[in-house]
Design goal:
It contains 11 helices and 10 strands. The chain is α/β, with parallel strands linked by helices and 245 residues long. It has a single domain, classed as 2-enoyl-CoA Hydratase, Chain A, domain 1 (Alpha-Beta Complex). The strands form 2 sheets. Strands 1-2-3-5-7-10 form a 6-stranded mixed beta sheet, sandwiched between helices. Strands 4-6-8-9 form a 4-stranded mixed beta sheet. Helix 3 runs antiparallel to helix 10. The radius of gyration is 17 Å and the shape is globular.
């Protein structure tokens, strides 16, 4: 069974992260699939919105560390960063439905989504500094804008987990939905978007993201620093400790 599944329904491409045995940890092949499915949907006139979700008990626990370290030569063509820049470049809106763990990329990708819904099981975390790394996906720029500089410092520098209520108070999620109706609710919202006049929808979204090139520049800065940090002794120590748990 594929670790990334898609279903196209009423103008929405529903993308499901499906690796429950590894808590939906993303490996490089999964990043490649995600990128391909987004690009395909972007060019398909029958698709007007995306929805990203995980399992009922987990969104994603972040990167598959062992797999990630096999290809630690970071650059624009690295599967993880191709995915992130694809998120940045999409014209069509994205809805996310978050349950359980949303760690690292599981939280930062939400900064590129238009509507985010979560249930009470959602647990968010940005543990980059804990792993001797730096933020990615433009989080060092987008998160302070969203939650304020002091709160962003707390989330990014301390790297502690926070719950759905915290995320709602910080405007990271639009609404907290009961677990048994979360996916249906998020899909309904995505279908509403897909039924809007597509050109007006995309033009409005673009106007709201007027500073896309500033975000791109910040993401490139993060990428360069991330690559340096990944080769550092302190990162190697932290990753080895993580793998030995």
């Amino acid at each position: 069974m594929s670790t990334i599944q898609i279903q196209d329904e009423q103008g929405v491409r529903i993308i499901t992260i499906n690796r429950p045995d590894k808590r939906n940890a993303l490996n490089l092949d999964m990043y490649t699939q995600l990128t391909e499915y987004l690009i395909q949907g972007e060019s398909d006139n029958g698709i007007n919105a995306f929805m990203i979700k995980g399992q009922t008990d987990c969104f994603t626990s972040g990167n598959d560390v062992a797999d990630f370290l096999k290809n630690s030569n970071l650059g624009p063509d690295h599967p993880a960063f191709k995915f992130l820049f694809t998120l940045l470049d999409l014209d069509k809106p994205i809805v996310a439905a978050v349950t359980g763990a949303a760690v690292g990329i599981g939280t930062t990708l939400l900064l590129h989504c238009d509507l985010v819904y979560a249930d009470n099981s959602a647990k968010f975390q940005l543990p980059f500094v804990n792993l001797a790394l730096v933020p990615e996906a433009g989080a060092s720029l987008l998160l302070p804008r969203l939650v304020g500089p002091q709160k962003a410092a707390e989330l990014l520098l301390l790297g502690e987990s926070f719950n759905a209520d915290d995320a709602y108070q910080m405007n990271l999620v639009n609404k907290i939905i009961p677990s048994d109706s979360l996916f249906d609710y998020a899909k309904t919202q995505a279908i509403k978007l897909a039924q809007k006049p597509p050109q007006a929808l995309q033009a409005s979204r673009k106007l709201m993201r007027y500073d896309q090139e500033i975000v791109r520049a910040q993401m490139n800065k993060e990428l360069k620093e991330f690559a340096i940090r990944l080769q550092s002794d302190e990162a190697k120590e932290r990753f080895q400790a993580f793998l030995n748990r």
